[in-house]
Amino acid sequence: MGKTIVEKIFESHLRDEPFVGTHVLNLDAVLCHEITTPIAIADLEWRKKDRVFDNTKIKAVIDHVTPAKDTNSAIQGKVLREWAHRHDIKDFFDIGANGVCHAIFPEKGYIRPGYTVIMGDSHTCTHGAFGAFACGVGTTDLEVGILKGVCAFRAPKTIRINLNGKPQNRVYSKDVMLTIIKELTVNGATDHVIEFRGTLIDGYTMDERMTLCNMAIEAGGTSGLCMPDMTTAEFLWEFIKDDYATKEDAVADYKKWWSDEDATYSRVIDIDVAAIEPVATFGYKPDQVKSVRELEGKIDQIYIGSCTNGRLSDLRIAAEVTKGHKLAFGVRGIIAPATPKIYRDAMKEGILDIFLDAGYLVSNPTCGACLGMSNGVLAPDEVAASTTNRNFNGRMGKGGMVHLMSPATAAACGITGKLTDPRDIK
Length: 426
Fold this sequence. Notes:
It contains 15 helices and 19 strands. The protein is α/β, with parallel strands linked by helices.
């Protein structure tokens, strides 16, 4: 019987199976940021186990509140910073060099096909776009990963989603993923990974694949996964060129991770992408999704950024809609490029000028507004059009409402000051 990509990764990384169904896997990368890791650090210190299993496989960043907004956030940064220096963790990104974790780590080439990756952050599933098994974990699992380089998992089942067809004008990967979450519901992929396949995925960039995988958790999924191919190899080539003679050799090697044709899936869903329209969430759950034209209401804030849609391609999309327009009166706009490189490239291309001319604030890379910690918190009864990944009650500020949408749709909302289909903006 054939195997799925996640079954192959589990088999190749298995260190132990202490109980039936519990798989202890060797880890290729342990990712850390200043919100969840300091708790693990403090506990390891208390247990007199302040060690790391391999300082070359641990990557750390200060990204959720940066720069620090108060004493508590400064302390969290200080704990992570001193720990990284103490253990000579060279891949540590502090103020000035830092970016949103799930954007900067792939950008640096730290994620590879077939890898096992954990982080104390639910959107670690983003990295499955590279054909890796990547998932968010709790503090105890993070501690063990830091100390021993292993993590225990139940073997997840797999839902395969076949995405075929040509998308409509101004329909993007965010629209596709929100449509998938509506189909699955927020619990539909619990204890599963979501395997994205089809002609749409074959033509998608790594940025677009990362957007899909990033929100697998919003359907309850452990991770999202794409098959590594030439697109993957081209993205990684700068980092893997000493390992392979050609990109074709890299792709041939990566195919060992591909799911077999006779692999078993718990569910297979076929979606005609041509039928998908620009969509947005309503209410307070990511599966509450409608076409934008079915929704109405005013917008107070536009937020374009995050680990979901803060990459250069996302900024290009939003700028294409915004160019020649101004933010509607009373609407404030925030742009947060996800990494310094993205910021610099957007500046060179003139993208930031388009946003500044329209009346946007361009921020440093940070996660702050996404989880209502800094850099764009909503007041009670305010409404945001956001390219982030969660619309939970109070997510971006107590009493605030968040509509999740693509960068194009968010930019369109900024122009009109209300929920707007981007196809209506010329």
